[in-house]
Amino acid sequence: QGQLVESGGGLVQAGGSLRLSCAVSGSFFSFNAMGWYRQGPGKQRELVASIQTSGTTTYAGSVKGRFTISRDNAKNTLYLQMNDLKPEDTAVYYCNVYPTLLTINGRNYWGQGTQVTVSS
Length: 120
Description:
The chain is an all-beta fold. It is about 0% helix and about 50% strand.
């Protein structure tokens, strides 16, 4: 089994920065690509960024150049540095395995997420 605990969200003005963290319990972290996902108000959950075990990263076009995903395998922690935040970045942010989500008892597992609110 595993657990995902996201933190670091908050209320920030447009143009500001936040750093999200995801503490992962379970031995799977070091062996899997990981991703940050987000779900905005009235929207479907979407992939924001991913990082392979090699460190190779990919980003959604809407955040490229502003967000940076990173990982610390020694600490079992995933990070998302978000700069130049925009109101459209407002969402609940989640981490998970990528591309195949973490499953527990046969069901996709999500942590509680962390709310990011960007005011204009």
